[in-house]
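Researcher: We are triaging several targets before committing to wet-lab work. For this one, the compound of interest is zinc ion. I'm pasting the protein sequence and the ligand SMILES. What I need is the predicted three-dimensional arrangement of the protein with the ligand bound, expressed as structure tokens, so it can go straight into our comparison scripts without reformatting.
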Amino acid sequence: MTKQILMCPVCRQSLDLNEKTWRCGQGHSYDVAKQGYVNLHVVQHKHSKNPGDTPESVDARRAFLQGGYYQPLQHAVVALLKQLDVKTVLDIGCGEGYYTSAMQQVVEQCVGVDIAKNAVQRAAKLNTEVTWVVGTGATLPVLDQSMDACTSLFSPIPQAEIARVLKDDGYLIVVTPASEHLYAMREALFEQVNPHTPEKFVEQLQDLFELKQ
Ligand SMILES: [Zn+2]
């Protein structure tokens, strides 16, 4: 059965699911929304009422991804999880769950977290086997040392929190845009365009993580 992995964002104890409510030992409780996700985004962290992507951008990205353009990447991430024998994975910045849903097929427990409620609502409709959470990287929604792997696909990398939730021999899988990613489009949209710097995150992570490839 499902092991306890979710963490109460207020007191940091483990959460248990009873009927449609997640509860901790201190009595904090979080209802599962009718769409099948839980909101663990505590109010004091909120900067705007509806942070993250708008419904329009969620729809647009979903339509684009349905075209299969990023399917090779989806397959590569799934293959890597299999190769590393990952049983529990947290997808940070899961959006509408294009990658997360595929990951779920090859692991025992899969948690997807995103700050954009619109996107998580959409994701939850498509796959009921993933534990979908509205939350932020400031407090990742899972317990200390509970994850075999965290993934950040074109998403932020809250490294202290990632180090907290990963097991000692856990993996962080990062996909980050190459320097020219969407360059032509960004050039058309913005006056000044800075190339992405994919090597920068490797430097930032080298104190806590050992680079595999
Ligand atoms: Zn609590």
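Researcher: Any quick observations?
Model: The mean pLDDT is 90.
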